[in-house]
Amino acid sequence: NAGVMQNPRHLVRRRGQEARLRCSPMKGHSHVYWYRQLPEEGLKFMVYLQKENIIDESGMPKERFSAEFPKEGPSILRIQQVVRGDSAAYFCASSPSEAGTGLGGYTFGSGTRLTVV
Amino acid sequence: GDSVTQMEGPVTLSEEAFLTINCTYTATGYPSLFWYVQYPGEGLQLLLKATKADDKGSNKGFEATYRKETTSFHLEKGSVQVSDSAVYFCASAYGGATNKLIFGTGTLLAVQP
Question: Does A4 sit within 8 Å of B101, measured CB to CB?
């Protein structure tokens, strides 16, 4: 049973380009979370999605960032017109239900390390 | 708002030494508490958790007790190994509609042979 799969592992973008980060949750998991880890900081919540629905995007920057979790396929975090400050590790996590953390915590992917040059 | 505060690292220990990594939280209610571990180049793995006051979470020789009176969830291990070298994150979560985790900044542990 594969874990949470994120790709690419490393992504380099020039300022102004778009970055697309993909996350395939564990089989049977329909809840996806995105977190961002800036250098020397802990993880910060960005967005929580269920299939075809954004449930909580309170941690997403208001501009340039968007996320989706379609009925079929992986969840996508999209960053338009990237800037140097977007350089970070972006982690996806999945859980089988709203009670994910209560039951046993999320399952995290290995992350995508975005570098903006 | 709610927050989690961890002791700053790095923490450098010799093999078989005793480990304590302090974690305190601020919360308006009674969250569940977690310790996650991140090995180099990998994602976070759940190490242990506690869901209510006085609960003790334990795994792989690590322990942490949910202390409501001191709002703490300190991580301990009696005898560390080189393979324990990693970044350790304390986190809290309420569950509910969003169930998001609030993380501390992480503590790097380096164990030397």
Answer: no
Decide if A45 and B32 are in contact by the 8 Å CB cutoff: no
Phi-psi region of B106 (alpha: psi -120 to 50; beta: other; left: phi over 0): left
Token pair in block for residue A88: 């970070």
Q: Chain B: give the shortest CA distance to residue A83, in Å.
A: 23
Nearest by Cα to B84 from B65, B106, B61, B53: B61
Cβ(A90)–Cβ(A75) below 8 Å = no
Q: How far apart are CA A110 and CA B5, in angstroms?
A: 24
Of B45, B89, B93, the CB nearest to A101: B93
Per-residue pLDDT of chain A (117 residues; tens, 9 = 90+): 568 999 999 999 999 999 999 999 988 888 899 999 988 778 899 999 998 999 999 999 999 999 999 999 999 999 999 999 999 999 999 987 655 544 456 789 999 999 999
Distance CA B80, CA B72 (A): 21
Question: Do B90 and B96 touch, CB atoms closer than 8 A?
Answer: no
Please write down the HEC assignment for all residues of A45-64: EEEEEECCEEEECCCCCCCC
Q: Residue A89's closest CA among A38, A48, A46?
A: A38
